Amino acid sequence: MDDKIKCACEHCTCMVETETAIKKNGSFYCDESCANGHVEKVGCGHENCNCS
Ligand SMILES: [Zn+2]
Ligand SMILES: [Zn+2]
Ligand SMILES: [Zn+2]
Fold this sequence. Notes:
Elements: E1 4-6, E2 15-17, E3 22-24, E4 27-29, H1 32-35
Antiparallel strand pairs: 1-2, 3-4
This protein binds zinc ion (3 copies).
C-alpha cells in the first residue's frame, strides 16, 4: 500500500509520499518552493510541472 498524495500546491501536479514530503501547516508538499508558496518564483523543478 502506498501513501502518495498530491502536493498541496494548487498548481502542482506532483505526487508526494507522506513519509518524504515537506510538511507545512498540516499539508504535504513535494518541494521547499511549493511549501513556501513560490515566493522566489521558482518551480519545484520536477518534470512536466510548471507550478512556479
Ligand atoms: Zn511540482
Ligand atoms: Zn509541489
Ligand atoms: Zn508548486
